[in-house]
Here is the input.
Amino acid sequence: MTTITLEHITKRFAPEVGSQTQGVIAVNNLSLKVASGDVLAVLGPSGCGKSTLLRLAAGILEPDSGAVLYDNIDLRDIPIRDRGIGMVFQEGALIPHWEARRNIGFFLRLRQREQEIPERLARIASITGIGLDKLLDRRPPQLSGGERQRVGIARALARDLRVLLFDEPFANLDAHYRAEARIELKRLLNALPTTSIYVTHDQTEAVALSHRIAVMREGRLEQVGTYQQLYHSPVNIFVASFIGPNPINFFPGRVHNGRWYGENFGDFPLRRDLPDGTRVTAGIRPENVRLQPGGVYGVVDHITPLLAERSQLVSVHLAGERWSLVAPLDQPVEIGSTI
Ligand code: ATP
Here is the structure.
């Protein structure tokens, strides 16, 4: 297996000729390592450079500066046929007039190793538990979106792989199909561990499939870690607000005698090295705020049911600040009421 290293890579896109707009720095001095056999998910807002990063890691794009290394060898020095990259895109990128079997066997056929195709197909089908054999004689237009993605994944895996790169492979699937496809892919990645980068918008998918998650913003890497690390110890306000199922509460405040004080509440212990008067923003997750008798009172101004979690996200006005909290779905709460 292969370690992928990105060393200070930068990629700019020049403006179109005659355009008034400036060029874009899609990836900005970004360094990152994916250990052999690990799956790294890349999360970040639209346009932050995730797909560009993936295309750089695949060698489809060349960085303007910096380098992409596979096992410490610059990708530019590895002949294309020895790179062993499997890619799975949102659109599947299958050849439309070839039946699934031919699409899947494409890379092995290129190397005159057609005789290995049936065994590989049987292995992939047995790991995922899906009836891949039923799809083999159909062409992509005769397959559903989910089936096309299964064929696309089987094609990526039916070759000698060093790395697997995914660009939002399940983005076009409905929630139900997506959950199934995720489980199948997880089984495949467990059974056939391959160093992988997985670009997604979906935090649930990132948590389910990856060992670590990289959060990007405007071409830069903000933080890399497990979901727990990102959730409980975000390095900045961006990561704190980007990661997590519900919007986090932020409160401005200051340090006094090593403790945090906000406008309406405080006295929380802080790191010892912050001088008095330092501005510090407190972040409190809505699931850590509880609705209970005898607490402080606030007026409800918005309620969002979270049906899957059997709870509701309640927004409350309290002493000029707005709080979000998670309450059980069966706890009666009404807009305009004081709780
Ligand atoms: P999304 O989540 O919406 O797919 P992304 O995070 O994958 O976005 P990229 O597709 O990598 O983002 O794009 C990063 C930036 O680079 C964007 O501002 C985009 O407009 C720009 N960009 C991407 N490809 C090109 C290109 N070929 N030419 C010019 N600009 C590009």
